[in-house]
Amino acid sequence: MKNLQEKSPIYYAEADIYDAFAQAEDAEGLVLQALQPLVAGKRVLDLGCGTGKYVELLAPHAAHIIGLDAAPAQLAIARRRADGLRNVDFALGDALDASLPKEKYDIVLACWMLGTVADKAKRAAILRRMEKLAPHIVLVENAEGSEFEAVRGRVNDPRRRTRRYNEWLIGQGFRETDRLEALFEFRTVDEARNIFAAIWGEDKRPLLTARHIGHKIAIYQKRIGI
Known about the structure:
Mean pLDDT: 92
CATH architecture of one domain: 3-Layer(aba) Sandwich
Largest sheet: 7 strands, mixed
CATH superfamily of one domain: Vaccinia Virus protein VP39
Strand order of the largest sheet: 3-2-1-4-5-7-6
Structural class: alpha/beta
Helix content: 25-40%
Number of strands: 7
Distance between the termini: 40 Å
CATH class of one domain: Alpha Beta
Number of helices: 9
Shape: globular
């Protein structure tokens, strides 16, 4: 089954497809608006930075930002995107055990990363590491009930994967601090169909009838010791 879970072949082998998907996501920049005041003047670690969309967008506001990702092809694009940004560095490795620069981080940010880890024990271990790295954790995640969720088959999902994961976050001490009504915006309907078919399978192609796709996004925060 195709997907964007941890170790997904599409993520490692076809970074350009994932990059086009990431660039289309949140076309109005609502996530950036929510994150910008949180990272202003802070030292940020972006876990699972992918092709560096938020590293690039947040760098002008942060004191320093390090992007970590386990996929070399993703980081190659991220490095090109951040070329010339002096307060940006990158590291290659798994979020659980990668070697990181020995500095103090103010915020650990993860955009659609933690929920891709299907192994619950590993997911919990990554969260424990995040809690040791910084006093403030910020997660950008999918929320229920969007057109995006419907295309992925999550609206009537008997496993309730999105809801169960978000409830798990609340159980771990996170608060939902923002709920955003966002949009994917692709250049054409065919581009949307091609990207969704590549990531989730050919059966998704006929479900896409416009280049805009509604997307509900939740931002969760946890402050350690509070």
